[in-house]
Structures are given as C-alpha cells and as structure tokens.
Write a structure and sequence with these properties.
This protein is an alpha+beta fold. Helices cover 25% and strands 35% of the residues.
C-alpha cells in the first residue's frame, strides 16, 4: 500500500509536466495560425488595393489591342439584356408563339420590318412544320427580360432545323437588332453553343456580330471551322459596306456617303446576304455558296446584281472555277462561268467603250459576257467577312 502511494506521488509531477508541454504546444499552434491569417489578410488587402487602382476596362482595352493587331475575332462574354413585350397569346395549338410583334427596351418600339416587307413575324414557330408565327394583333403589355444567351438559343433552335426564313424574321425583331447593335467593333461577337476545355467556342454553336450578322455551324478552338452558314440582313436605313454587290453597276444616283469611311447608304435593294459552305481560320475556305436576296422591285433600270455565286473560296475570296447567276432590273436570270485566283477573275479578250473587260461567259451564249472595270478586278469575294 505504501509502495502504491509512493508511485502516485512520483507520477504527479510528471503528469503535470506533460500537461504543461501540451498547453505550450497548443498555444504555439494558435499563435502561428493567427499570424498566418493576418498575413493572408494583408495579402488580400494588397491585391484589392492593386485592383482598385487599375483603370476600369483595362483588360477589355488589352483585348481590343490584341484584336486590332491580330484580326482574330473576340468573344464578348458579358451578358446583354433587353426588354421584350410578350405576345398576348404566347402559345398556339401547334406549339408556336402567336399573338403579336415583339418589342425591345421600353416595350414601345415596333418590330423593324425587313426590306421586302414580307410578313410581320417569325415564320414557322414550329421549326419542323413551318407553321404558326408571330402576328400583329396587339400586345399583352407584359414586359420580360431577354438575354443574349436566350435569344441565341432561340435562334439556334430554328437554324438547326434549317428554317432560315424564321432566323431572318427573328433577326428583324427589335430586341435582336439591339443585341447586334451593342457589338460596335468588327470581330466582336456573342456566342451560344459547345465549348472546349478552355471555354472557347468548339463544336456546334451560334454567334451574333454587329451589323445584323449571324453565324451558325462548326467551331474549332474559338474560330469558325468546318461546315457553317453566315448571313447578314439589310433593312431600311442599314449601312452597307462599299462594294457589296455593286460590281456590275454604276453607283446609284440616290446613294449618299455616310460618316463612316468606305460605307454607303444605297437604295435598299439588298434584303439578305449569306454564305453556306466550308470554313477554316474563321473565313470561307473550300467549296461554298454565296447568295444575295434581292428586292426586285427596287432594282434601278439598267442595273444587274449577283444573285448566286458557287465555287471555291480562299480566305473569303473567289478562287477557282465559279458559277454565277445574276438578276437584272427586268427580272431576267442569267447564268455565267468564270475563273478566279485569290479574288481576281481571269479576263477574256476585248474591252468595251467604257474601258471594261469581260470576266465571265454566258452559259447559253458564248458571245455574251459580264464586264467590269479593270481596277475593280481585285480582292473580290465576301466583302463583309473581310471586314469582320
């Protein structure tokens, strides 16, 4: 018994020493943690101060500089919102939207009609059947927000079913036009679709650019690549880049030069300009089909316009054998064959009184040709894409 008591007395100091050591270790750990948190807080404060001292938009300005230097398109990843006035009858029996035109921003802006004024709404709101549509019977007054992602998703649904007429109708709605108008720099675009591991457009997707331009098709590493279709709609008062489908005509007398260099405001002859075919490096490359939709009623007497151009393209320029269809003021459609190299047509023998040279031969009449001015026979192709 006495032996046990003696052992207890000897163990008490040892236990006390162990408790003291543990307490010291705990205090050291707490102190080290506090110092670490204080250091992290100081670092964060320094980072926040650095960020606050940066000028707003510095990153965007850097992106702009890269775009201007390289010419590569730049995706704008900000969210764009507009106000849309929803039709009174939002869903019809066939699944399509019905009831009225749609508006943007304040809800009092009417839909901007296409140049040919064919219809007042979306054609074929059932993208497979091509039925239904947005009519002009009045508005419910309900205002809802629509983002660029929602609008592009809606348009992509039609385009994926090859309902291009519905795509054109959507593009004419006020909130779609405002979305496009918010992209005021060439090459800037909003995107909706598949992406790669680096979040770049990759796979199938749709994009909107300034000037009522859209692209739907294949992407690779952030660039248009593979099969795809681009289109640009023209409306009353739209700015048209100089040289777009004016090659066969003198400049109309009613044309006036706008404030932008190289941009004109012609009579609204063009309704839509499109290209469907192969792409690489963000431009048409390979076999493709360029098409102009023309308002025949507005063609000036004596004028002729390209309507279809099919063949090979290189970086958006005509390159190889080209098959061309033209439409003139009298409604005559003619077919032509020609050959181009990097945007320059091979010229045939002869020169007319105005100094023009023949570039294409009529399919049905070997003595009939298309004539152009020699200085204009260069860099011929899809002018809008060259500026994008």
């Amino acid at each position: 018994m006495m032996e046990k008591n003696r052992l207890k007395k000897e163990l008490i100091p040892i236990a006390a020493l162990l408790v003291f050591i543990v307490a010291v270790l705990i205090l050291c750990a707490v102190s080290a943690g506090r110092k670490k948190r204080e250091a992290q807080t100081a670092d964060m404060a320094g980072i926040e101060e650095t960020i606050s001292q940066e000028e707003p938009g510095a990153e965007l300005e850097a992106d702009k500089a890269v775009l201007e230097e390289t010419g590569i398109s730049l995706e704008v990843q900000e969210t764009f919102e507009v106000m849309e006035e929803r039709p009174a009858d939002s869903v019809s029996e066939n699944g399509g939207a019905t009831g009225s035109e749609e508006t943007a921003e304040s809800g009092d802006e009417e839909r901007i009609p296409a140049a040919d004024a064919k219809g007042t709404g979306v054609s074929g709101n059932d993208p497979q059947k091509g039925t239904g549509g947005v009519s002009s019977n009045g508005l419910s007054g309900e205002i809802v927000k629509k983002t660029n992602v929602e609008m592009l998703a809606e348009m992509m649904d039609y385009w994926a079913r090859d309902n291009v007429e519905a795509v054109q109708d959507l593009g004419g709605l006020g909130h779609y036009r405002k979305m496009s108008a918010s992209l005021d720099k060439p090459g800037y675009f909003y995107y909706y679709g598949e992406r790669d591991a680096q979040s770049r457009p990759d796979g199938m997707g749709i994009a909107v650019y300034g000037g009522d331009q859209y692209y739907y098709g294949s992407w690779k590493a952030g660039m248009r690549d593979g099969e795809g279709m681009w289109l640009r709609m023209y409306y009353e008062g739209s700015s048209v880049p100089a040289g777009v489908n004016t090659l066969l005509n003198p400049m109309p007398a009613q044309t006036s030069v706008s404030g932008q260099e190289g941009v004109v405001q012609p009579a609204p002859v063009l309704i839509c300009h499109s290209y469907r075919g192969n792409w690489s490096a963000n431009l048409p490359n390979g076999e493709g089909h360029e098409q102009f939709e023309i308002d025949k009623e507005k063609i000036a007497e004596g004028n002729r316009y390209f309507q279809n151009i099919m063949g090979n393209f290189r970086d958006g320029l005509y390159d190889g054998k080209m098959y061309i269809m033209t439409l003139d003021w009298a409604g005559n459609v003619q077919e032509w064959n020609g050959k181009a190299s990097e945007g320059t047509f091979e010229t045939l023998k002869g020169r007319d009184q105005e100094g023009r040279v023949p570039i294409c031969q009529n399919v049905l009449d070997a003595d009939s040709h298309l004539w152009i001015r020699p200085l204009e026979n260069r860099s011929l192709g899809i002018a809008e894409l060259a500026r994008q």
